[in-house]
């Protein structure tokens, strides 16, 4: 209760409502008692701020009122589109002629440009599928293959594949995404997991423009896990974001990291990003993860003429692919993409441990 | 030629919360500002925001009592709005080559810095009041802003008597004080 009385006194003091004797007494108290003095100072600031706050609130209301009022009475108005309409009527003819000339000029210029521009040299981009025959010692490979075939229960093709790339699960029931160019010329496709088990897969979607293909594992031996550790990002990634990938440039899974260097790909291609990461033949089709373990793209190729320029198809294209597939599949076996990553916040080693089982070597024959 | 005294009167009117003064200034200058904003990439809503903020700057200045207008009100408002709009544009990262000068401008940077400070104080108090919650907020507003008497407040808020209301008000004020100063002392560094 003491405090209430004190506060009351302070407020009366600030407002100047004290009687002269009381005031003298209070000022004396302020001088001798530092705590009281501090309270007065603080309270003055508070009341001052409170007052300003109230006044400004009030004033803002007034402004709103005046605005509405003047607006209704027509003293102020939005810039009238009517004026433009009048101008339009007046200059219709002139504008039409101008538009014609502009159109013709634009067409002829774009024609000229198209004529004179050097055609983009497609071979500048090395699609990073691996020509396995070049890399491997065929004889040894075949021998090893036969050996393994005898020993292992998994059914696998006898001949080594023509091309190799990387693929990753987008739905744990056995749907994988990879690059279109890895499987486009294939008669048959096999995917191999990190343990060396082969599974027969079929291509259910292929788009050369976005360089995305979707595979489905046909083998009954494949056991899908419950859910994928990573998610697939729907929105765009950011410049400079740290990224990493897992792929099969050799028969062994290989990790690489880098950053996103441009929002567009080769010659301003908006379907892809430019990234800086070490990529070798066989990395094609590998997932590009951001730090949180969300897939932001699918590695597709690199520019030979420039060092360190790698391209990745955007993850948006995976969503588009899945939409396309959905159109001709029954609702309950449609592919379900997950947005959320379960490895967010883990350190990289832990992330990789969880992710690596979902990355496959893709071999096409 | 507009007389200077006339505009000084308007400022005095502003300081005394005279609605007519607000109306007069609004009528005379709103369209000019609107043209400025719209011809520089803005919408009518932007124009309203910017003009009203400039009016707040003017109000704070008029209230402070130390403000002397040493140019035409029109020039002053135009300069403030132009500056505010440039800032807004850069915040929205809409790049604009240069807001063209359609009118004379005067330097207002310093005044706007001061205004920023006032703005910050206002938002601090607003936040404190908001986190205070009901019925404390209404109670304090009734007493300190609308200057109602304790007896009146006791009636409105359903307290049995003025003393009870006063007790409650005291508790609320202490809470507000804590909320406000926790933040305020941080910003004052």
Keywords:
heterodimer; A: alpha+beta; Thrombin, subunit H; 3 domains; six-stranded antiparallel barrel; B: about 190 residues; mainly alpha; Rna Polymerase Sigma Factor, Chain: A; Arc Repressor Mutant, subunit A; about 75% helix
Description:
- Chain A has helices at 2-15, 20-32, 34-73, 81-116, 132-135, 138-151, 180-183, 316-327, 348-355, and strands spanning 125-127, 130-131, 163-171, 175-178, 189-192, 198-207, 212-217, 231-232, 242-247, 254-262, 272-276, 287-290, 294-303, 310-314, 359-364.
- Chain A is α+β, with helices and mostly antiparallel strands.
- In chain A, a hairpin with a 4-residue loop joins strand 6 (198-207) and strand 7.
- In chain A, helix 2 (20-32) crosses helix 3.
- With 189 residues, chain B is an all-alpha fold.
- The longest helix of chain B is centred in the C-terminal third of the chain and has 27 residues, at 162-188.
- Chain B is elongated and about 60 Å long.
- Classes of the chains: A alpha+beta (365), B mainly alpha (189).
- At the A-B interface, helix 1 and helix 3 of A face helix 2, helix 3, helix 5, helix 6 and helix 8 of B.
Reconstruct the topology from this structure:
The complex is a heterodimer of chains A (365) and B (189).
Chain A: H1 2-15, H2 20-32, H3 34-73, H4 81-116, E1 125-127, E2 130-131, H5 132-135, H6 138-151, E3 163-171, E4 175-178, H7 180-183, E5 189-192, E6 198-207, E7 212-217, E8 231-232, E9 242-247, E10 254-262, E11 272-276, E12 287-290, E13 294-303, E14 310-314, H8 316-327, H9 348-355, E15 359-364
Chain B: H1 4-15, H2 19-38, H3 44-64, H4 73-92, H5 109-132, H6 136-145, H7 150-157, H8 162-188
Structural class call of chain A reads alpha+beta
Spatial ordering of strands, largest sheet of chain A: 9-10-11-14-13-12
* SSE pattern of chain B, N- to C-terminal: HHHHHHHH
What is the CATH top level name of the largest domain in chain B? Mainly Alpha
Rounded to an integer in angstroms, the radius of gyration calculated over CA atoms of chain B is: 21 Å
Radius of gyration of chain A: 35 Å
Shape of chain B: elongated
Give the fraction of residues assigned to helices of chain B.
over 70%
Number of strands of chain B: 0
């Amino acid at each position: 209760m003491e405090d209430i009385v004190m506060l009351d006194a302070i407020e009366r003091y600030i407002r100047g409502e004290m009687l002269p004797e009381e005031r003298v007494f209070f000022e004396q108290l302020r001088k001798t008692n530092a705590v009281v003095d501090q309270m007065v100072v603080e309270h003055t600031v508070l009341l001052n701020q409170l007052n300003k706050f109230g006044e400004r609130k009030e004033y803002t209301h007034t402004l709103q009122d005046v605005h509405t009022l003047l607006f209704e009475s027509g003293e102020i108005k939005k810039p009238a589109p009517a004026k433009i309409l009048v101008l339009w009527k007046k200059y219709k003819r002139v504008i039409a002629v101008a538009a014609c000339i502009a159109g013709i000029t634009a067409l002829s210029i774009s024609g000229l440009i198209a004529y004179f521009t050097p055609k983009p040299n497609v071979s500048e981009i090395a699609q990073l599928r691996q020509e396995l025959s070049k890399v491997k010692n065929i004889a040894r490979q075949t021998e090893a293959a036969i050996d393994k075939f005898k020993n292992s229960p998994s059914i696998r093709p006898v001949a080594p594949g023509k091309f190799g790339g990387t693929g990753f699960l987008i739905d744990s029931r056995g749907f994988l995404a990879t690059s279109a160019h890895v499987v486009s010329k294939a008669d048959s496709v096999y995917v191999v997991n990190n343990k060396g088990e082969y599974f027969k897969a079929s291509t259910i979607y292929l788009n050369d423009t976005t360089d995305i293909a979707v595979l489905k594992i046909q083998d009954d031996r494949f056991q899908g896990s419950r859910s994928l550790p990573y998610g697939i990002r729907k929105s765009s990634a950011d410049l400079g974001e740290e990224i990493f990938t897992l792929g099969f440039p050799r028969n062994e899974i290989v990790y690489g990291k880098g950053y996103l260097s441009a929002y567009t790909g080769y010659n301003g291609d908006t379907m892809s990003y430019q990234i800086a990461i070490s990529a070798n033949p066989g990395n094609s089709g590998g997932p590009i993860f951001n730090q949180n373990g969300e897939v932001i793209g699918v590695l597709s190729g690199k520019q030979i003429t420039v060092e360190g320029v790698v391209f990745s198809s955007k993850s948006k294209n995976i969503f588009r692919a899945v939409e396309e597939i959905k159109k001709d599949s029954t609702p309950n076996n449609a592919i379900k993409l997950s947005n959320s990553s379960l490895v967010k916040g883990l350190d990289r080693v832990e992330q990789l441990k969880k992710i690596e089982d979902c990355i496959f070597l893709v071999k096409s024959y | 030629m507009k007389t200077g005294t006339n505009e000084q009167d308007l400022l005095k009117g502003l300081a005394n919360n005279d609605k007519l003064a607000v109306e007069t200034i609004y009528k005379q200058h709103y369209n000019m500002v609107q043209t400025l904003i719209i011809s520089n990439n803005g919408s009518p809503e932007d124009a309203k925001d910017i003009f009203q903020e400039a009016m707040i700057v003017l109000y704070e200045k008029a209230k402070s009592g130390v403000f002397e207008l040493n140019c035409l009100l029109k020039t002053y408002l135009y300069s403030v709005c132009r500056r505010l709009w440039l800032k807004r544009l850069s915040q929205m990262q809409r790049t604009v080559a240069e807001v063209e000068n359609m009118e004379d401008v005067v330097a207002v940077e310093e005044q706007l810095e001061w205004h920023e400070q006032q703005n910050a104080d206002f938002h601090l108090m607003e936040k404190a009041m908001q986190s205070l919650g009901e019925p404390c907020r209404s109670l304090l507003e009734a007493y300190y802003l609308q200057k109602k008497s304790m007896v009146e407040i006791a009636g409105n808020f359903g307290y049995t008597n003025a003393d009870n209301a006063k007790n409650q008000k005291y508790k609320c004020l202490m809470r507000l004080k804590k909320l406000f100063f926790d933040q305020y002392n941080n910003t004052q560094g």
